[in-house]
Specification:
This protein is mostly helical and 564 residues long. The chain contains 26 helices and no strands.
């Protein structure tokens, strides 16, 4: 490599090599993930209270994905969606910190000269493979070769800097452990990739430009900097999800504090357990330090994982003490209020609990329907009537999730009740309640369609709904909202009289819908601009009709349940 490169030329070559390195990691990760399908994510989500298996699952998943940040961001999502508790996630985080050291071990092998051969073999396998598994393996192998080629390009780019005085002065500053940790933390946070930063460290080490003590300080900083992805991923999420990100920060910060005072001793230990090489000066450093850095990274993270593993229970309590649940946020999380397994031995008592929970479902559905038209008539996001911190749309989404959850829980509970010896009357009541629960959940699905698909259509229409069209929709919406409120009211006491009143209003609703559709179609023929909002107008009417039909079905089930 010609050592007369200009600084700009070095920067361009180094940046290109870094891009190849990162793209290689992404390609390798993509191939491995495709080859393993969803098994890694499924494995993580199924981790139970066994800490050791959780740690192994985290390590294995990170080795496949080649990114601890991705795994921990996934954990944040799993905890947010309640597929995993944050307590279960703690052991997986420890495993992810171990798994991330695999990349350092890989790049420490001096495979640069074989990079293009590995890439070509992977490309051939990807292009000629008969099965998907072979093609995905070829994609991963191509990425493996590409990352080493990128490392080779970076190494050649920095070669002229071996004799560049300002650069050498900068490295001497980094020998100060405080500055090394700060630099490692800042650069890793900036790159959002500890793998990329470690690749740069090993590139410098391959040129004999970095000693082990400075490298360890930079690694310690990188362990803190890599937490930025999880912190950002948890922003705006529930407290439980935020505790996952906080756990990674505390794990890694504790590791830095534990090892920082003993960097010289730790470096000496790493030299003893790592292979040594003949020679002196930069040549000896170039042969030894890459492997030593990889070993230091592995031993640091493995030690911290094993150190924390026995203390996860008190650590769990510490996290909760630092970041306790928000009472208002807790109310947003789907949960049953009344169902008790202890009551299943007394079917009539259990049914009374079901009725209370179903009445709650009715109240939730009524609030969803009442809010459903707001986004179509207002440009601002608005505020939820119960949770002002939520917009109208987010409030509807939250309640739809609650209805889905309650439908599953109540249906399962009713099935358990049905396994008891029931009278014919009680059996009919159980069947009626199942229909009611399904109907209420279906109303939630209809409103989800309104605030999802239809709102996307509205954003693509430049002209707003006409004033007359809005008035018609308001009237139909008012009628439907009133019906759902009647249903919620009737469910409070399973009042057949109130349910029957709703059934009597069916013809009035049908007439109003026909009038609105006829008036709208006249406008479409007379006013060209009305065509733009035609689909939205008609689909809204259709969806409100669906809500009306579900209300009728629920009302009939209430009447049947009481008659039985």
């Amino acid at each position: 490599m010609n050592e007369t490169f200009s600084p700009a030329g070095i920067a361009v070559l180094f940046t290109g090599g870094l891009a190849l390195f990162l793209y290689g990691i992404r390609m390798m990760s993509s191939g491995l993930k495709k080859a393993s399908g969803e098994r890694m994510r499924h494995l993580i989500s199924k981790v139970t209270g066994n800490r050791f298996y959780g740690m192994l699952a985290g390590a294995l998943a990170t080795m496949v994905v080649q990114s601890s940040s991705t795994i921990i961001a996934t954990l944040v999502g799993l905890v947010q969606s309640r597929l995993m508790t944050y307590s279960q996630a703690l052991a997986v985080i420890l495993g992810a910190e171990i798994g991330t050291t695999a990349m350092a071990q890989l790049v420490a092998f001096k495979l640069h000269d074989y990079a293009l051969i590995i890439f070509a073999a992977g490309f051939a396998l990807n292009a000629l493979g008969k099965s998907e598994s072979l093609r995905f393996t070829g994609e991963a192998l191509s990425g493996f070769g590409l990352l080493f080629f990128g490392l080779k390009v970076m190494s050649e780019a920095v070669a002229p800097l071996e004799t560049y005085a300002p650069f050498l002065s900068l490295l001497r500053y980094l020998e100060n452990p405080f500055l090394g940790v700060a630099a490692g933390m800042a650069l890793t946070a900036l790159m959002h990739s500890s793998a990329a930063f470690i690749g740069i460290l090993i590139t410098l080490a391959l040129q004999g430009a970095l000693n082990l003590e400075a490298g360890i300080a930079l690694l310690l900083g990188a362990n803190i900097g890599t937490c930025i992805t999880a912190v950002l991923a948890s922003a705006g999420m529930q407290r439980a999800a935020k505790r996952v990100a906080l756990a990674q920060v505390l794990f890694n910060v504790t590791g830095v504090f534990m090892f920082f005072p003993f960097i010289p001793q730790f470096a000496e230990f790493i030299r003893i357990v790592s292979p040594s090489a003949e020679g002196l000066g930069a040549g000896k450093l170039a042969l030894e330090v890459p492997r030593q850095l990889a070993n230091a990274h592995s031993m640091l993270n493995i030690f911290m994982a094993l150190f924390f593993l026995p203390f996860l229970s008190p650590f769990d309590r510490l996290l909760y003490w630092i970041l306790p649940d928000d009472p208002e946020e807790t109310r947003l999380i789907p949960a049953v209020w009344y169902l008790k397994d202890s009551a299943l031995s007394t079917p009539l008592l259990a049914l009374s609990y079901v009725k209370a929970e179903v009445a709650r479902m009715g109240s939730i559905a009524a609030k969803m329907v009442h809010a459903s038209l707001y986004p179509f008539f207002n440009s601002d996001p608005g505020k939820d009537v119960v949770f002002p911190r939520l917009s109208v749309i987010k409030g509807m989404s939250m309640r739809e999730e609650k209805l889905d959850f309650l439908e599953t829980c109540i249906s399962d509970y009713l099935i358990k009740i049905s396994h008891s010896a029931l009278s014919e009357r009680v059996s009919k009541e159980v069947f009626a309640l199942m229909n009611i629960v399904n109907g209420l959940e279906s109303i939630g699905d209809v409103i989800e369609t309104i605030e999802g698909k239809l709102l996307d259509k509205k954003r693509g229409v430049e002209d707003d709904l006409s004033r007359e069209g809005k008035d018609e929709l308001r009237e139909i919406h008012r009628m439907v909202s009133r019906e759902v409120e009647q249903i919620a009211d009737a469910l409070q006491e399973m009042d057949a009289r109130k349910a029957a009143q709703l059934l009597q209003g069916d013809e009035i609703f049908k007439q109003r819908v026909e009038q609105a559709e006829t008036a709208h179609l006249k406008r479409v023929f007379l006013i060209r601009e009305a065509e733009l909002s035609h689909n939205i107008h008609m689909e809204l009417i259709n969806l409100f009709e669906q809500v009306h039909h579900y209300c009728k079905s629920i009302a009939q089930s209430i009447v049947n349940a009481v008659k039985s």
